[in-house]
Automatic annotation (TrEMBL):
SUPFAM superfamilies: 2Fe-2S ferredoxin-like. Keywords: Oxidoreductase. InterPro entries: 2Fe-2S-bd_N, 2Fe-2S_ferredoxin-like_sf, 2Fe-2S_ferredoxin-type. Its EC number is 1.5.3.1. It comes from the Bacteria. It comes from Anoxybacillus andreesenii. GO terms for molecular function: sarcosine oxidase activity. This is Sarcosine oxidase subunit alpha. It is an enzyme of class 1 (oxidoreductase).
Amino acid sequence: MNSHRILDHPVLGKLTIEKEIPFTFDGKKYTGYEGDTIASALLAQGIRTLRVHEESGSPRGIYCNIGHCFECRVTVDGTPGIRACLTELNPDMIIESGKQQFSPFKSTENQDDLPRTYAEFEKQLKGEKEDEPDV
């Protein structure tokens, strides 16, 4: 048993630990307990970061713990977007944290060169056509 799990809560009382459940998170083997959610099992192991922001790479973890915010999304047995705070831990689950993703829509051009209005776009388009040689 690890030291991050609350075994005797001042309001809820003593935790009754029943059956151990093995699972894997990002390639490492861990043990949770029957009745744990994925989030509670990971939190008990001292794991706070469940994913990173898809674009910026900043760490994300448990925020609301009631399924509203979607910050705790993980991939479970190959299915992405599973909310760790709502999903009960099952034996031999393979859980993967969310990784930073390539953004195909992110502009690599200088933002100052892009037109801000349709009129600027037309002007830029006409300017490019004027520069093209006649064939």
